[in-house]
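Hello,

Our lab assistant flagged a job as stuck in the queue for most of the afternoon. It eventually completed. Since we weren't sure the result was trustworthy after the delay, we are filing this so someone can double-check. Below is the sequence as submitted and the structure that was eventually returned. Let us know if re-running is recommended.
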Amino acid sequence: MGPIEDLGKAINGIAEGAGRSTVGIGNRWRGGSGVVVEAGRVLTNAHNLHGDEVRVFFADGREADGKVLGADGDGDLAVIGVETGEAPAIGWGDGTALSIGSPVVAIGNPAGNGVRVTLGFVSGLGRAFRGPRGRRVAGAVEHTAPLLPGSSGGPIVDGEGKLLGINTNRLGSGFYQAIAADAALKDRVAALGRGEAPTRRRLGVGLAPSQVARHLRRAVGLDERDGLLVRDVEEGSPADKAGVAEGDLIIAAAGKPVASADDLFDALGSVAADADLPLTLLRGAEERTVTIPG
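-- returned structure --
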């Protein structure tokens, strides 16, 4: 038997092992994939969810209704409670041990349409992607194992079928991203399984990017400034209560300059959720500071 046949045999073994842990999420026309992480618990991407009740499709053809136990929309993770039956929990590997060129096997069960298994290599580390709500999620693994639509939420695994990451984002041109399986991910999964969704500060505003703000200010004869233009304010939101208004330009948060949405999210994350957050605004030509209460 030659090396190609040996490789094929190894991938088939992974399919028969970790493939049994990989499930479909949603329905056969819309949804994604997931992976059994312990008896009664399935991990998937938050963007695969469409309500609290979820249909789960197992590799052996069984179907079951599950319930969302915890979801982190900003981090694009969710844990579903479901009767996993004989589907084994996947073993945890070490996603932090990956390096450029490390081989990875990607597994999906797109919306319950059957397990797919592909081979690729790590092409980048420490990458970032946008979560469903626009926040930047750092520390992703970039790889080249091909994935069908509906494979997000499924695992990438090592040669022993152990979890290295959770696929989440398609970059196009044959590149994909996965949330690395590390101690922090394991803790997050356990917390979501207990129904403990992370608390992140929100303002309740719609924003336009800095280049739009500069163009609009120039159009009405105001000095150009880097910042985020407030397009709308949610009634009753923290921003509304603090006096933020449509047309304001956010130029600093928590004492840090704001030139992009990432700057704002970083500033929000730097202040405890129960602490006051100062925002510096330009309202026309007037600079003012408001306080978002903790």
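-- support follow-up --
The delay was a queue issue, not a problem with the job. The result is valid. Residues 3-17 form the longest helix (15 residues). The chain has a mean pLDDT of 91.
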